[in-house]
Design goal:
Chain lengths: ~300, ~350
């Protein structure tokens, strides 16, 4: 049973400062039961600090956190802890233990949950069950971290950068498990700086920058709100003004990444020839031109003027 | 080979303790330093300081050849002294270097009586006491008789050899070393790797985590102490005069005190190097001052009250008393009190300040 109102997690007015820097600044969120919610943002945006406050591992300076209808009361919150699952960013589990031993150890902490065997099979870890942790590949390690989060059969799962540093194959494997968990009515909060991951898995996202929410909604709505279906990325030797670009047919908006223009377009067939004509008329040489679907990345650039990776 | 399905978990405290033991047993280096090294150390030190028969006093006669021959004949065959034929003209240097202990210089007075000068280094016992032996032998040979009847009763009591002193000291060093390193290092490492934080995010009871260190440690402690007791017995004939139960209880309490200290050292640092520094600050003075290799009573008397309060001093004194005097638990009250206070105080402070992140 989650919160009575179908809310799995709610925080309001959440602040956390380290010295003069606000890691989390006035954060308000509401995560509904059964949804997969993504916290997006570049490194240092405050995602991990926020999640650790949700997990009751870090105390907010001010504001409230309510998890499954309860507030964290202190270290001894055994009941509430047994209803959530946690995978931290970069935990090194005991090197000299075998996969099965680690899962069993974590299972012993929970009053109820899956069997060790079920979890091993679910995450494809039954093969390397007798492999020691230090011999696992990066993907296997992440799956083991995931296994320790799932073993108590949680209602709410916190995943901090679950696929960072993994190859595409390992990443897809993790995505499948997350999607499967959500399909069984589990609630997920995940942090990531991969837009593709968020667009693929998350029902709703909040984009964080410098500890603040700069946008919140479904990935589809956020992208639609840009008013552009396509984005033309230009690399120019020289410049043209945003006003000129905006005046072109089919162009809905212009953003900048660094000093290079990103042109938002809804009728690519009209916009592209007009754009090339303009650049030719102005004698601005084009070094590169890429067109692509608008993405959450563009939402972030639109709000901050920076890319997620180069933030 | 198809794998058997995983067995279900037992009580978390058991699982944590078991995990800790597996981790230790799978680290071959740790096993050697805990069991092999102390035994090797005992063998090395035991051989170096083994009991030797007393050495004779070495003397050299100098002076006129005929008188020298006379004296030499008189001393011939006396017990505990030995003439040295030294081809060295500089007898002073030979005395200084300890190659001879006494120079005997006989002369004949005008009236015909013998006069002897003994030269020796008063700083060295072999000279200071040895010339009396030479003199005694000479006087007897010349006809002196005893005025008091004397009987010798040399007593070689067991438990007073250096190795009898050393083995309990080594047990002390080992119990302190392994209890402290085994606990503190692993806790700080787990904190650095965020394993502590990960565990804190589970419903695991935090006391179980800390108790698992105590549980695993006590199992190893038993084998460590037994290894040294057996090695001492077989190699050097060191016997435990008191009861083994008493020895076991003293070791248990000692180990708890050192684990408390370790927990306190490990309660905050995130860095293993920082923790190692603190460990040395805590352990090094005890290595030197707590009477592991030589008695702490050799330090100035003003320090004694302080030295007695160190946990390793209390532990060494208690184990030594059990080994060599057959002390009972009751007679060890003061030492056990010191260890108990350390245990309770350290655990209390450590748990109050423990950092899980």
């Amino acid at each position: 049973m989650a919160g009575l109102d179908g809310v799995a997690l709610r925080c309001s007015g959440l602040w956390k400062r380290y010295g003069t820097i606000a890691a989390v600044a006035d954060l308000d969120l509401e995560i509904r039961q059964g949804e997969c919610f993504g916290l997006l943002g570049p490194n240092g945006a405050g995602k991990t600090t926020a999640v650790e406050m949700f997990e009751g591992l870090n105390t907010p300076d001010s504001g409230t956190v309510e998890v499954l209808g309860q507030r964290w009361r202190g270290d001894g919150d055994v009941r509430l802890r047994s209803r959530i699952g946690v995978a931290l960013q970069e935990t090194q589990l005991a090197d000299n233990l075998e996969v099965e031993e680690v899962v069993r150890l974590f299972r012993s902490f929970y009053p109820s949950g899956k069997t060790v065997e079920e979890v091993l099979v679910l995450l494809g870890l039954d093969g390397p069950r007798h492999t020691r942790v230090h011999q696992l590949s990066g993907g296997q390690r992440q799956r083991l971290a995931f296994a320790t989060a799932l073993v108590g059969d949680p209602e709410l799962l916190f995943l901090d950068e679950p696929t960072t540093g993994l190859d595409p194959q390992a990443r897809h494997r993790i995505w499948d498990v997350i999607a499967d968990f959500r399909d069984r009515k589990g609630t997920v909060l995940l942090t990531t700086h991969y837009m593709e991951e968020a667009e693929r898995l998350c029902d709703r996202v909040a984009i964080l920058d410098h500890g603040r929410t700069i946008a919140q909604g479904t990935p589809g709505d956020l992208i639609r709100d840009l008013g552009a279906e396509q984005v033309v990325e230009l690399t120019l030797d020289g410049d043209v003004s945003d006003d000129l670009l905006c005046g072109l047919p089919g162009v809905t908006r212009v953003a900048r990444r660094g000093d290079q223009p990103l042109v938002g377009v809804n009728r690519i067939g009209e916009a592209l020839p007009a754009l090339l004509d303009l650049l030719a008329a102005r004698a601005v040489p084009v070094r590169a031109l890429v067109t692509r679907q608008a993405s959450l990345e563009d939402v972030f650039i639109h709000h901050t003027g920076r890319g997620l990776r180069d933030a | 080979m198809p794998d058997r399905p995983a067995r279900p978990p037992a009580h978390p405290l058991l699982e944590l303790t078991w995990a800790r033991m597996l981790e230790f047993a799978r680290e071959p280096g740790a096993v050697f330093w805990t069991f092999g090294f102390p035994v090797l150390l005992a063998i090395g030190l035991g051989v170096a300081f083994r009991a030797r028969p007393p050495e004779p006093v070495r003397y050299r006669i100098s002076g006129d050849a005929s008188i020298a021959a006379d004296v030499r004949d008189a001393l011939e065959g006396s017990v505990g002294i030995e003439a040295v034929d030294l081809q060295e003209p500089d007898l002073d240097r030979a005395l200084q270097a300890g190659r001879i202990d006494v120079v005997v210089q006989p002369t004949v007075r005008e009236e015909g009586t013998l006069e002897v000068t003994y030269r020796y280094d008063p700083e060295r016992d072999a000279g200071r006491l040895g010339w009396h032996l030479v003199d005694d032998a000479l006087q007897r040979a010349r006809g002196r008789t005893d005025v008091v009847e004397v009987r010798e009763a040399p007593e070689r009591s067991p438990g007073v050899r250096y190795i009898d002193f050393l083995i309990p000291g080594l047990i002390g060093l080992n119990v302190m070393g392994s209890s402290m390193w085994g606990t503190a290092y692993n806790i700080v490492l787990a904190r650095r790797r965020r394993l502590l934080k990960r565990l804190a995010a589970t419903p695991m009871r935090r006391s179980h985590f800390l108790l698992s260190f105590v549980g695993a440690r006590l199992l190893f402690l038993a084998s460590e102490v037994v290894a040294l007791v057996i090695a001492g017995r077989l190699l050097f004939g060191v016997i435990v005069r008191g009861s083994l139960t008493t020895l076991g209880l003293v070791s248990l309490l000692g180990s708890l005190a050192f684990m408390g200290l370790a927990l306190l050292v490990a309660s905050r640092p995130r860095d293993t190097e920082v923790a190692a520094g603190w460990m040395n600050v805590v352990m090094l003075p005890q290595y030197l001052l707590s009477g592991a290799f030589f008695s702490w009573e050799r330090f100035p008397e003003v320090l004694h009250p302080v030295l007695r309060l160190l946990p390793l001093t209390a532990f060494n004194d208690a184990t030594r008393a059990v080994f060599n005097q057959g002390a009972s638990l009751v007679s060890l009250g003061p030492e056990l009190a010191v260890l108990s206070v350390w245990t309770v105080a350290c655990f209390f402070l450590a748990l109050r300040h423990f950092r899980w992140q």
